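Researcher: Next entry: Carbohydrate ABC transporter permease (Microvirga puerhi).
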Amino acid sequence: MHPKTREKLIATVVGWLAAGVIFFPIFWMILTSFKTEVEAIATPPKLFFTPTLENYVTVRERADYVHFALNSVLISVGATLLATLIAIPASYAMAFFPGKRTKDLLLWMLSTKMMPAVGVLIPIYLLFRDSGAIDTRWGLILVYTLMNLPIVVWMLYTFFKEVPKDILEAGRMDGAKPKQEVWMLLMPLSLPGIASTALLSIILCWNEAFWSLNLTTSQAAPLTTFIASFSAPEGLFWAKLSAASTIAIAPILVFGWMSQRQLVRGLTFGAVK
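Model: Predicted structure:
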């Protein structure tokens, strides 16, 4: 076998094995959702069984899935839009008009992601309680925006740095104001990067559970709270929990699959010149 063919074959096998390891928990969750509670905890696990839709029926009767899904969509999209609106001018300023402390500021912003969320839970909860933001969509949108803003700024800053400065300077010579420069020159040139950043932000917001469990109860509760509602003091009902998890992640899985090309295109934006 030719060495290059062998290397390609090995890389393909390793890639498929890695994909299998990553996808296996999702596959097992979907499989468990079609089992009875007894079969779900059977030892050894059963691969062959009679599928049942009982868990999905129970989940649908117990909670209003559409209500939770609508909250997830509105909160994720709202937080992404707000974070992007704040991050675009901030990243533009740091990419094209850097100061002595620009890199320090970027590192500080990224360092806030290393802080455990539970460390600021009590002050944020008290602020939300006093301002009436508990169990509201706008409250979660604000928290999710602050949560993802460092990542959004970092990514957009990286993408904006790949845009040639000569293009923006030519726009200034033609009389373009900063607002027109960003809107008519920078954003069209960085569209793949902006799109991939927005997609990643939506996914992060959709999967966030800590803040939704602590700051919502019913009215603004997203799908992560919907999943947690199927744990009880008596224990975990694995089959029903798997069914709830499956229908909760189904929209974001489909969304991620449909947007994977745009996401990869944006993440590799400027990698090859």
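Model: Note for the record: The chain has 14 helices and two strands.
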